[in-house]
Amino acid sequence: MGLEKIDQLAREWLEEAGNRIFMALEQANIEVEAKSDRNDLVTNVDKSTERYFAEKIAENFPEHRLLGEEGYGEEITSLEGIVWVLDPIDGTVNFVEQKRNFAISLGIYQEGVGELAYIYDIVGGEFYFAKRGEGAFVNDVEIPKLAKNNKLEDSLVIINTASVRKFPHMLPVIQAARGLRLYGAATLEYMAVATGRADAYVSANLSPWDIGAGKIIAEEVGAIVTRVDGSEMLITEKGDSFVASPGVHAEILRDYSR
Ligand code: IPD
Ligand code: CA
Ligand code: CA
Protein backbone atom coordinates (compact mmCIF):
# COMPACT_ATOMS: atom_id res chain seq x y z
CA MET A 1 0.00 0.00 0.00
CA GLY A 2 1.40 3.38 -0.98
CA LEU A 3 1.94 6.58 0.97
CA GLU A 4 -1.17 8.16 -0.57
CA LYS A 5 -3.50 5.77 1.22
CA ILE A 6 -1.55 6.21 4.46
CA ASP A 7 -1.80 10.00 4.10
CA GLN A 8 -5.54 9.87 3.44
CA LEU A 9 -6.26 7.70 6.50
CA ALA A 10 -3.83 9.58 8.75
CA ARG A 11 -5.70 12.82 7.98
CA GLU A 12 -9.09 11.21 8.68
CA TRP A 13 -7.89 9.81 12.00
CA LEU A 14 -6.26 13.10 13.03
CA GLU A 15 -9.47 14.96 12.33
CA GLU A 16 -11.50 12.47 14.35
CA ALA A 17 -8.95 12.46 17.20
CA GLY A 18 -8.95 16.28 17.17
CA ASN A 19 -12.75 16.36 17.45
CA ARG A 20 -12.68 13.93 20.37
CA ILE A 21 -10.03 15.98 22.18
CA PHE A 22 -12.03 19.16 21.57
CA MET A 23 -15.16 17.52 23.01
CA ALA A 24 -13.29 16.25 26.06
CA LEU A 25 -12.17 19.85 26.71
CA GLU A 26 -15.70 21.21 26.25
CA GLN A 27 -17.14 18.61 28.60
CA ALA A 28 -14.29 19.08 31.11
CA ASN A 29 -13.92 15.32 30.97
CA ILE A 30 -10.23 15.14 31.87
CA GLU A 31 -8.61 12.90 34.50
CA VAL A 32 -5.00 13.81 35.26
CA GLU A 33 -2.24 11.54 36.63
CA ALA A 34 1.43 12.27 37.32
CA LYS A 35 4.00 9.92 35.75
CA SER A 36 7.75 10.24 36.59
CA ASP A 37 7.26 13.50 38.55
CA ARG A 38 4.54 16.03 39.37
CA ASN A 39 5.14 17.97 36.14
CA ASP A 40 5.15 14.88 33.91
CA LEU A 41 1.42 14.48 33.34
CA VAL A 42 -0.79 12.09 31.44
CA THR A 43 -4.58 12.23 31.09
CA ASN A 44 -7.31 9.84 30.04
CA VAL A 45 -7.41 11.85 26.78
CA ASP A 46 -3.70 11.23 25.98
CA LYS A 47 -4.32 7.50 26.52
CA SER A 48 -7.58 7.23 24.59
CA THR A 49 -6.10 9.19 21.65
CA GLU A 50 -3.10 6.88 21.39
CA ARG A 51 -5.32 3.79 21.79
CA TYR A 52 -7.53 5.07 18.94
CA PHE A 53 -4.52 5.33 16.59
CA ALA A 54 -3.13 1.96 17.76
CA GLU A 55 -6.43 0.26 16.90
CA LYS A 56 -6.80 2.02 13.54
CA ILE A 57 -3.21 1.22 12.50
CA ALA A 58 -3.51 -2.45 13.55
CA GLU A 59 -6.83 -2.80 11.67
CA ASN A 60 -5.69 -1.12 8.43
CA PHE A 61 -1.93 -1.75 8.35
CA PRO A 62 -1.16 -4.83 10.48
CA GLU A 63 2.46 -4.89 9.25
CA HIS A 64 3.16 -1.31 10.42
CA ARG A 65 4.49 -0.52 13.89
CA LEU A 66 3.57 2.26 16.34
CA LEU A 67 6.10 4.12 18.49
CA GLY A 68 3.94 6.10 20.91
CA GLU A 69 4.42 7.82 24.25
CA GLU A 70 1.68 6.08 26.22
CA GLY A 71 2.70 2.48 25.55
CA TYR A 72 0.01 1.26 23.12
CA GLY A 73 2.67 0.63 20.49
CA GLU A 74 5.82 -1.43 20.55
CA GLU A 75 9.26 -1.09 22.08
CA ILE A 76 11.13 0.21 19.04
CA THR A 77 14.85 0.83 18.69
CA SER A 78 15.22 0.68 14.91
CA LEU A 79 13.03 2.04 12.13
CA GLU A 80 12.70 -0.94 9.78
CA GLY A 81 9.51 -1.08 7.71
CA ILE A 82 6.86 1.57 8.31
CA VAL A 83 6.76 3.14 11.78
CA TRP A 84 4.13 5.62 12.99
CA VAL A 85 5.73 7.90 15.60
CA LEU A 86 2.95 9.40 17.71
CA ASP A 87 2.64 11.85 20.56
CA PRO A 88 -1.11 11.82 21.23
CA ILE A 89 -0.89 15.12 23.11
CA ASP A 90 2.34 17.08 23.12
CA GLY A 91 2.16 19.78 25.77
CA THR A 92 0.02 17.89 28.29
CA VAL A 93 0.77 20.46 31.01
CA ASN A 94 -0.62 23.17 28.69
CA PHE A 95 -3.59 20.93 27.84
CA VAL A 96 -4.42 20.59 31.55
CA GLU A 97 -3.55 24.12 32.71
CA GLN A 98 -4.33 26.30 29.68
CA LYS A 99 -6.60 24.20 27.47
CA ARG A 100 -4.53 25.37 24.50
CA ASN A 101 -0.95 25.31 23.20
CA PHE A 102 -0.82 21.54 22.73
CA ALA A 103 -0.84 19.38 19.60
CA ILE A 104 -1.13 15.87 18.23
CA SER A 105 2.14 14.90 16.58
CA LEU A 106 2.48 12.11 14.02
CA GLY A 107 5.51 11.29 11.88
CA ILE A 108 5.56 8.37 9.45
CA TYR A 109 8.92 6.76 8.73
CA GLN A 110 9.69 4.20 6.02
CA GLU A 111 12.98 2.30 6.40
CA GLY A 112 14.22 5.09 8.68
CA VAL A 113 13.33 7.95 6.33
CA GLY A 114 10.72 10.51 7.44
CA GLU A 115 8.11 10.54 4.67
CA LEU A 116 4.99 12.20 6.12
CA ALA A 117 4.49 14.47 9.12
CA TYR A 118 1.49 16.06 10.82
CA ILE A 119 1.29 18.40 13.81
CA TYR A 120 -2.25 19.38 14.68
CA ASP A 121 -2.68 22.37 17.00
CA ILE A 122 -6.36 21.71 17.61
CA VAL A 123 -7.37 24.80 19.60
CA GLY A 124 -5.10 27.12 17.58
CA GLY A 125 -6.65 25.75 14.39
CA GLU A 126 -3.29 25.06 12.72
CA PHE A 127 -2.64 21.83 10.86
CA TYR A 128 1.00 21.46 9.85
CA PHE A 129 1.93 18.90 7.24
CA ALA A 130 4.97 17.88 5.23
CA LYS A 131 5.70 15.25 2.64
CA ARG A 132 9.39 14.63 2.06
CA GLY A 133 10.61 16.54 -0.98
CA GLU A 134 7.21 18.16 -1.62
CA GLY A 135 7.24 21.03 0.86
CA ALA A 136 5.65 21.83 4.19
CA PHE A 137 2.24 23.43 4.70
CA VAL A 138 0.12 25.00 7.38
CA ASN A 139 -3.61 24.72 6.69
CA ASP A 140 -2.71 23.87 3.06
CA VAL A 141 -0.68 27.07 2.56
CA GLU A 142 2.95 26.32 1.73
CA ILE A 143 5.45 27.42 4.37
CA PRO A 144 8.23 29.44 2.70
CA LYS A 145 11.79 28.07 2.88
CA LEU A 146 13.82 29.65 5.70
CA ALA A 147 16.32 32.41 4.98
CA LYS A 148 19.88 31.06 5.06
CA ASN A 149 21.67 34.04 6.60
CA ASN A 150 19.65 35.16 9.64
CA LYS A 151 21.70 36.45 12.56
CA LEU A 152 21.32 35.68 16.26
CA GLU A 153 21.14 39.38 17.20
CA ASP A 154 17.91 39.69 15.16
CA SER A 155 16.41 36.40 16.40
CA LEU A 156 13.95 35.14 18.95
CA VAL A 157 15.18 31.96 20.64
CA ILE A 158 13.37 29.25 22.60
CA ILE A 159 15.48 27.80 25.43
CA ASN A 160 13.95 26.64 28.71
CA THR A 161 15.56 26.67 32.16
CA ALA A 162 16.28 22.90 32.16
CA SER A 163 18.24 23.40 28.95
CA VAL A 164 20.25 26.29 30.38
CA ARG A 165 21.03 24.15 33.45
CA LYS A 166 22.31 21.33 31.24
CA PHE A 167 23.97 23.65 28.69
CA PRO A 168 25.17 26.78 30.56
CA HIS A 169 26.77 28.08 27.33
CA MET A 170 23.18 28.76 26.15
CA LEU A 171 22.78 31.66 28.61
CA PRO A 172 24.95 33.99 26.49
CA VAL A 173 22.95 32.84 23.43
CA ILE A 174 19.77 34.13 25.10
CA GLN A 175 21.54 37.37 26.03
CA ALA A 176 22.79 37.89 22.46
CA ALA A 177 19.38 37.22 20.87
CA ARG A 178 16.62 39.76 20.34
CA GLY A 179 14.42 37.92 22.85
CA LEU A 180 13.35 34.68 24.49
CA ARG A 181 10.05 32.85 23.91
CA LEU A 182 8.71 29.65 25.52
CA TYR A 183 5.64 27.70 24.38
CA GLY A 184 5.81 24.52 26.52
CA ALA A 185 5.20 22.05 23.70
CA ALA A 186 8.20 20.79 21.74
CA THR A 187 6.18 20.29 18.57
CA LEU A 188 4.91 23.88 18.56
CA GLU A 189 8.44 25.08 19.35
CA TYR A 190 9.68 23.16 16.31
CA MET A 191 6.87 24.77 14.27
CA ALA A 192 7.81 28.24 15.53
CA VAL A 193 11.26 27.70 13.99
CA ALA A 194 9.83 26.12 10.81
CA THR A 195 7.54 29.11 10.22
CA GLY A 196 10.20 31.74 11.10
CA ARG A 197 8.42 32.91 14.27
CA ALA A 198 11.64 32.02 16.11
CA ASP A 199 15.13 31.17 14.84
CA ALA A 200 16.33 28.55 17.32
CA TYR A 201 14.94 26.03 19.78
CA VAL A 202 17.19 24.16 22.20
CA SER A 203 15.86 21.38 24.41
CA ALA A 204 17.76 19.27 26.94
CA ASN A 205 15.71 16.12 26.75
CA LEU A 206 13.25 15.05 24.08
CA SER A 207 11.84 11.64 23.18
CA PRO A 208 11.18 10.16 19.71
CA TRP A 209 7.49 11.16 19.78
CA ASP A 210 8.36 14.81 20.61
CA ILE A 211 10.49 15.19 17.48
CA GLY A 212 9.31 12.51 15.02
CA ALA A 213 7.05 14.86 13.05
CA GLY A 214 8.72 18.18 13.89
CA LYS A 215 12.06 17.10 12.43
CA ILE A 216 10.49 16.17 9.08
CA ILE A 217 8.58 19.46 8.78
CA ALA A 218 11.48 21.64 9.97
CA GLU A 219 13.97 19.98 7.59
CA GLU A 220 11.54 20.31 4.71
CA VAL A 221 11.72 24.13 5.00
CA GLY A 222 15.52 24.12 5.38
CA ALA A 223 15.96 24.22 9.17
CA ILE A 224 19.01 22.41 10.55
CA VAL A 225 18.26 19.73 13.16
CA THR A 226 21.08 18.26 15.29
CA ARG A 227 22.08 17.52 18.87
CA VAL A 228 23.24 20.57 20.85
CA ASP A 229 26.89 19.74 20.02
CA GLY A 230 26.09 19.71 16.29
CA SER A 231 26.16 15.91 15.90
CA GLU A 232 23.45 13.92 14.14
CA MET A 233 20.13 13.55 16.00
CA LEU A 234 18.56 10.10 15.56
CA ILE A 235 14.88 10.17 16.39
CA THR A 236 14.94 6.69 17.94
CA GLU A 237 17.25 7.92 20.72
CA LYS A 238 16.08 10.13 23.56
CA GLY A 239 18.30 13.18 24.08
CA ASP A 240 18.90 16.85 23.50
CA SER A 241 17.82 18.67 20.38
CA PHE A 242 18.86 21.86 18.57
CA VAL A 243 16.82 23.13 15.63
CA ALA A 244 17.48 26.50 14.00
CA SER A 245 17.51 28.41 10.76
CA PRO A 246 20.80 27.72 8.93
CA GLY A 247 22.64 30.98 9.70
CA VAL A 248 21.68 31.00 13.36
CA HIS A 249 22.50 27.30 13.79
CA ALA A 250 25.99 27.88 12.36
CA GLU A 251 26.52 31.06 14.41
CA ILE A 252 25.56 29.38 17.72
CA LEU A 253 27.82 26.38 17.05
CA ARG A 254 30.70 28.62 15.93
CA ASP A 255 30.57 31.35 18.59
CA TYR A 256 28.90 29.76 21.61
CA SER A 257 30.21 26.19 21.83
CA ARG A 258 31.60 24.98 25.10
C1 IPD B 1 6.77 17.59 26.73
C2 IPD B 1 6.67 18.94 26.03
C3 IPD B 1 7.63 19.92 26.67
C4 IPD B 1 9.07 19.42 26.64
C5 IPD B 1 9.13 18.07 27.34
C6 IPD B 1 8.17 17.08 26.68
P1 IPD B 1 4.52 16.05 26.75
O1 IPD B 1 5.91 16.64 26.10
O2 IPD B 1 6.95 18.84 24.67
O3 IPD B 1 7.61 21.15 25.99
O4 IPD B 1 9.91 20.35 27.29
O5 IPD B 1 10.46 17.58 27.27
O6 IPD B 1 8.24 15.84 27.37
O7 IPD B 1 4.94 15.28 27.98
O8 IPD B 1 3.67 17.20 27.06
O9 IPD B 1 4.04 15.18 25.67
CA1 CA C 1 5.68 15.34 24.04
CA1 CA D 1 2.60 13.56 25.24
CATH top level of the largest domain is: Alpha Beta
The low-confidence parts are none
The CATH topology of the largest domain is Fructose-1,6-Bisphosphatase, Chain A, domain 1
Tally of domains: 2
List the secondary-structure elements in sequence, H or E.
Answer: HEEHEEHEEEEEEHHEHEHEEH
Based on CA atoms alone, the radius of gyration comes out at 18 Å
The biggest beta sheet reads:
7 strands, mixed
Counted beta strands:
14
CATH architecture of the largest domain: 2-Layer Sandwich
Q: Tell me the overall shape.
A: globular
CATH homologous group name of the largest domain: Fructose-1,6-Bisphosphatase, subunit A, domain 1
Hetero ligands: D-MYO-inositol-1-phosphate, calcium ion
Helical proportion?
25-40%
Identify the strand order in the major beta sheet: 3-4-5-6-7-8-9
Alpha-carbon distance between the two ends:
47 Å
Structural class: alpha+beta
Can you give the mean pLDDT? 96
Binding site for Mg(2+) 1: 69, 87, 89, 210
Keywords: Hydrolase, Magnesium, Metal-binding
Cofactor: Mg(2+)
GO molecular function: inositol monophosphate 1-phosphatase activity; metal ion binding
